[in-house]
Design brief:
By secondary structure, the protein is mainly alpha-helical. Helix content is about 45%, strand content about 5%. It has 7 helices and 2 strands. GO terms for molecular function: DNA binding; DNA-binding transcription factor activity.
């Protein structure tokens, strides 16, 4: 199963926001530069995450974005359900002559449900726990560590599939 680029970017935004201290705002430009994502595309992602109630979007000079819920409250399976239609097969009687007798659609629905049920076990917080390597990608110290956080975030290039 392959997630859409939109969903991929959405999860990446949630991960980054979860590494910030609770309540801290960041700007869309920072996230755009960090992940090397078009700001225009990221604005659409941010808008959807705000509509879903996963993040706060604050306009104005001192505005920005931040998680609305704690990372423990954002289930990965539920987020995917809200972000991605997850239709594995487009079966219809008009397009396939064996559709009335075919069992493949049922098996794929079962597989999708098993996939989401497994992801329901995890939250955004689970991606952060004991994961200093993730924080180092953002050049941040894990909250509660002794070292002061670094100010400049490192840019991460997302490899596109051909």
């Amino acid at each position: 199963m392959q997630l859409s680029r939109f969903t991929d970017y959405s999860i990446r935004v949630l991960i980054y926001l979860a590494t910030l201290p609770p309540g801290e705002l960041t700007r869309i430009n920072e996230v755009s530069e960090l992940y090397d994502i078009s700001k225009n595309h990221l604005v659409k992602v941010i808008h959807k995450l705000g509509q879903l109630g996963l993040i706060d979007t604050i306009q104005g000079k001192n505005g920005g974005i931040r998680l609305k819920l704690s990372p423990e409250q954002i289930g990965i399976g539920q987020a995917l359900r809200q972000l991605e239609p997850l239709h594995l097969l487009n079966c219809s009687v008009e397009s396939c002559c064996i559709s009335p007798a075919c069992r493949l659609k049922r098996y794929l629905v079962d597989a999708k449900e098993a996939f989401l049920k497994e992801l329901d076990k995890y939250t955004i917080q689970d991606l952060l726990v004991d994961n200093q390597k993730l924080y180092s990608f953002f050049q941040k110290e894990k909250p509660g560590s002794q070292s002061p956080p670094k100010k400049q975030a490192r840019r991460i290039r997302i490899k596109e599939k051909a």
